[in-house]
């Protein structure tokens, strides 16, 4: 695994919602979740001004999991995958680190 410029792991109790395109859904309040976010700032020698990262969240009980990739251009988050919407915890963390992720809120 590549060493990232930024990496943080934290825990938070949060409500979780799971929904599926078939219309099935499930909610649970107060789930103990672990969050991991990692990202690289654009390097000075970057020709294409691109950098990458990843995000992950999982519950202690193992019933809840989501994760995916992060793609940046000129330190602005331009794309992500793994979930319909990027959880706000990761948008906030990226903004805290100096990335511009507001367009994903």
Write the layout of secondary structure elements.
Layout: E1 6-19, E2 25-39, E3 50-59, E4 65-73, E5 76-80, H1 88-96
Antiparallel strand pairs: 1-2, 2-3, 3-4, 4-5
What does this structure look like?
The chain has about 100 residues and is mainly beta. It is built from one helix and five strands. It has one helix at about 90-95, and strands at about 5-20, 25-40, 50-60, 65-75, 75-80. The protein has a five-stranded antiparallel sheet with strand order 1-2-3-4-5, covered by helices on one side. The radius of gyration is 15 Å and the shape is globular. The model has no long low-confidence stretch (mean pLDDT about 90).
Helix fraction, binned, reads under 10%
Average pLDDT rating? 90
What is the number of helical segments per DSSP (H or I, 4+ residues)?
1
| Arrangement of strands in the largest sheet | 1-2-3-4-5
For the CA atoms, what is the radius of gyration? 15 Å
Number of strands: 5
Helix/strand/pairing class, anyone?
A: mainly beta
Q: Can you summarize the main beta sheet?
A: 5 strands, antiparallel
Sheet-strand content, in percent, reads over 45%
Order of helices and strands: EEEEEH
List keywords for this structure.
single chain, 105 residues, mainly beta, five-stranded antiparallel sheet, 5 strands, 9% helix, 50% strand
């Amino acid at each position: 695994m590549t060493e990232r410029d930024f990496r943080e792991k934290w825990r938070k109790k949060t409500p979780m919602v799971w929904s599926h395109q078939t219309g099935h859904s499930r909610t649970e309040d107060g789930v103990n979740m672990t969050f991991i976010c990692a990202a690289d700032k654009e390097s000075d020698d970057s020709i294409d001004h691109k950098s990458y990262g990843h995000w992950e969240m999982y519950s202690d009980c193992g019933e809840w999991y989501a994760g995916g990739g992060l793609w940046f251009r000129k330190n602005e988050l331009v794309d992500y995958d793994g979930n319909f919407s990027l959880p706000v915890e990761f948008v906030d963390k990226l903004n805290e680190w100096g990335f511009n992720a507001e367009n994903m809120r």
